[in-house]
Predict the 3D structure of the following.
Amino acid sequence: DTQMTQSPPSLSASVGDRVTITCQASQDISKYVNWYQRKSGKAPKLLIYDGSNLQTGVPSRFSGSGSGADFSFTISSLQPEDVATYYCQQHDNFPLTFGGGTTVEIK
Amino acid sequence: EVQLVESGGSVIRPGGSLRLSCAVSGFTFDDYGMSWVRQAPGRGLEWVSGINWNGENTNYADSVKGRFTVSRDNAKNSLYLQMNSLRVEDTAFYHCARGGHKGHYDFLNALFHWGQGTLVTVSS
């Protein structure tokens, strides 16, 4: 199985800050990483697919990059509504696997 | 609007069986692969199982292989998860999620839309 190591587990930042989350795969997974947002009490929401593609309707302050085994997710200007837990996920091979999550809070 | 609504969750004793359902609307169901993903209390997301657009191909996490069976009824726009030999560690919210379009690794793909989930509690 492909292990996805996500960091940091949590972070606290101010409104307007740039926030970056990283995900490292245990093997080469090409570009096949997706990023999800999970707000309390709501269904997970896809933000970025195939490494860097912004899902329809998602604000442009969210972005993703990387290939091979190292990936990153950035919120360019943190907003209060971005408080959530974020997960990376690979779909290069079965089983699909997720990172452990990063909880983002406002300082 | 794409909607996925899970049902069938309940409290069940270890060793018991349960069948979850996911009713979908807002898209052509038989054009897409589908998955089940779960989240145990205080834990992260875990992919459980996936199925391709016509039901001919399936895949499972090792933790449920041999105990869970995924299926779909395209005429009813519904996805199912038959859960047998349930264990305490299967306690979680179970979400259905829509994958990619058929012909493009439809269930080896991102999970584009999710349902709110249904809670399965396995406890004696």
Summary: The longest strand of chain B covers residues 92-101. Chain B has no helices and eleven strands.
